[in-house]
Amino acid sequence: MAASAVLLSTVTLNGYAATATFDPSAGVVDLPVVEVLSGGSSAFYSAQLQLSGNELQLVSASPISATTGQRNVFDSDTGAVHVASVGVGADEYYAKLKLVPGSNPLRFEVDQLANNAFQRCPDFAQPGATSNSCVLSGTITTNATLTKDIVWVLDGPVYVGGDNTQSATLTINPGTRIIGVGGQGDQAAYLWIRRGSKIMAEGTPDNPIVMTGPSEASAGEWGGLLISGNAPVNGCNEGVPVCEVPFEAVVSEFYGGNNPTDNSGVLKYTQIRFAGSAVRQDEELNGLTLNGVGSGTVIDYVQVHEGLDDGIEVFGGTVQMKHLVLTNIQDDSLDWTNGWQGRAQFILIKQTAAIGDRGIEADNNEKNQDSSPRAQPILSNITIIGRAGDTATQGILLRRGTGANFFNTVVTGSPACLMIDSASTFENAGSPGSLTGELTMVNSFVQCASNYKDGTDATFTVADWFTSQSGNKAEDPLLSGYLPATGSPLILGGAAVPDSFFTVVDYVGAFKDANDNWTEEWTFPFN
User: Fold this and answer.
1) How many distinct helices (H) and strands (E) make up the chain?
2) Count of beta carbons in the 10 Å neighbourhood of residue 94
């Protein structure tokens, strides 16, 4: 670390469009453009860092206008400054600076320097068939870093760590590309973070991480990303002190535990494209599968595009997520079961016209619908752009005993916007005018061919359930594509969620207005 700091003192920092220079006489690093990411918003600064021993200290920061293109990025979630390119003589490196906790004025340590030009494959990988490629296979049991100078190829299933043993951390740098190649069913290429291990995938708006298939021509070219954690799940027999269950598609892999704040790492500014694999009937690999993942995990700014099965499927746990973009998913865009009790805010679900099941499909547990802990996530600021046609279904289906608390949600375009099904789901909800609080929806809008559909064993109508709750409206939300148009009732139709995880907003849907398109720059094109 000390050597890295000294190295930085003798070089010119070159962040492509955002260059930075070092003045050796003053010991000052000048960063003309730094984007500071914080709480879903960003601000831009021109900053200077002073070299002091092994550290770099912030000595000035002046606000500047927003800038596109390559730039330096400070992510307050992870306390890291990402510099895309650092010139060291004739070579260029990616540099990562880590904030020293509690420092005032702010100080940073040099956490990583990685050459931006291909050197060789590291010890945990094998040379690939094409230039600048390295192959990952089997199980990784030591800490490893995937850098953007290499095209990383997944050859069949790749696991990080054992199951709560031989734990490892997989770090993925901004701009890194991972390609899953070959295999079918449970032998498809996929990346699986096991219980006790972590993924630290820290992309940036200008350099998102990409996980995709070899040809990017159709859904199902590889198996996707799976993360297993130690947070509580349901599905065990009564009396089992710690519930641990096998994953439905790969039954040798277990998830769940008794740690609701379990931390499986970070997934930010990441695209997961053309994934999914059918293993057995109704048992598939998804774009992103979250098995018993805990609330200590950070998931923010993640896109799943062209998934063969579900976009994101959550199997229990307490995981919390923000800024999700689920596009052209062939089955359900967001699916949960096994007692998910997490949080999610700012979700865009946009279906393609040709194929796709539900925007949201929600279960507590298929085999024991009253299994505990009962699923009851809190969700806010969802925009669902459904599809029509003979094979289309519902925007949101709530069934098999699930609970949920929806805020500030808009559903359009599907044959039916909302459906509640199964006796256990109705019983858990209570009745209009006397709801239990376990299944609610407020400050929300629906506009579909049929806004409501009553499922089996209904004890009340979905229409009465929806209209009896505050702020709900069945009217045109006035969308322009997926963004609110001028004069849209969504713009001031929302309310704050009484939970500290949620950003305070006063609007309905995933976007405040036509100028609040947070999908820009970091996502794969989906319009």
Assistant:
1) 3, 42
2) 23
Task: Tokens 């390609």: give the residue.
Answer: 179
Quote the tokens at residue 174: 């901004």
Burial class (CB in 10 A: 0-12, 13-18, 19+), 261: exposed
> Please, which contacts does 320-325 make with residues 24 or more away whose CB atoms are closer than 8 Å?
320/295, 320/344, 320/501, 321/345, 322/40, 322/346, 322/503, 323/40, 323/518, 324/299, 324/348, 325/350, 325/519, 325/523, 325/526
Q: How far is CA 157 from CA 164, 248, 279, in A?
A: 18, 16, 13
d(CA 142, CA 122): 12
DSSP states of 434-464: EE-SSEEEES-EEESSEEEEE-TT-SS-HHH
pTM listed for this prediction:
0.96
Q: pLDDT for 396-448, tens place per residue? A: 999 999 999 999 999 999 999 999 999 999 999 999 999 999 999 999 999 99
Are 228 and 194 in contact by the 8 Å Cβ rule? The answer is yes
Task: Give every CB contact of residue 258 below 8 A, 6+ residues apart in sequence.
Answer: 230, 232, 241, 242
Residue 206 tokens, joined: 């200008």
Distance (Å, rounded) from C-alpha 382 to C-alpha 396? 11
**Angstrom distance (rounded) from CA 229 to CA 292:** 5
Q: For residue 75, what are its two tokens?
A: 């992510």
Q: How far is CA 492 from CA 185, 349, 443, 511, in A?
A: 47, 21, 10, 11
- The dihedral over CA atoms of 117, 125, 312, 392, expressed in degrees to the nearest 10, equals 90
